[in-house]
Model the fold of this input.
Amino acid sequence: MELLCLEMDTIIRALPDPNLLYDDRVLQSLLTIEERFLPQCSYFKCVQKDIQPFMRRMVATWMLEVCLRGTEMRGRTLAMNYLDRFLAVVPTRKCNLQLLGTVCMFLASKLKETRPLTAEKLCIYTDNSIRPQELLEWELVVLGKLKWNLAAVTPNDFIEHIMRKLPLPEDKGGGLVGGAGRSLNMELLILLLVCAIDIDFL
Done:
């Protein structure tokens, strides 16, 4: 008997766990834990001197564009969480904002995606304005400032719980599986990504 490993371009995901989705304690825990991962103040008033809200919006829009080029988007709200948490504690120069956004996408991709983005690919997305070595050096800086606490709860984590509670018919996303349900999940995910661009949704 011959064993073959066939690589495929499609990404196979595990089905949602009904034991987690039908237990309201899980949702309550997510809501409680989420508070720990939100910036505690408006960092434009108390931390950032060089960066303005419109600059954050520009970087967030660019991050969304990069996200839409990729095959997976699950780590993008997490990347925005890292960006905001870092900016809430470290005064940053505006010339380093895109580098910071790139590092945050790199970290979130490693944590959430089955095929993480490479440093080289991310540098290409910046029109090679940053080098892979610079990205790797900043990765350690960001990890240190976030105290290596990367498993943040983001709006993304609530999608399946929201879907379960909506009074939708089975063919429109009600239930746990199905093409329409996955399509509605993706639409909600894109909406969350668009909301993450605006600082007012923090």
Summary: The radius of gyration is 18 Å. Residues 43-201 form a domain with the Cyclin A; domain 1 fold (CATH 1.10.472.10). The chain has a mean pLDDT of 79. The CA atoms of residues 35 and 138 lie 26 Å apart.
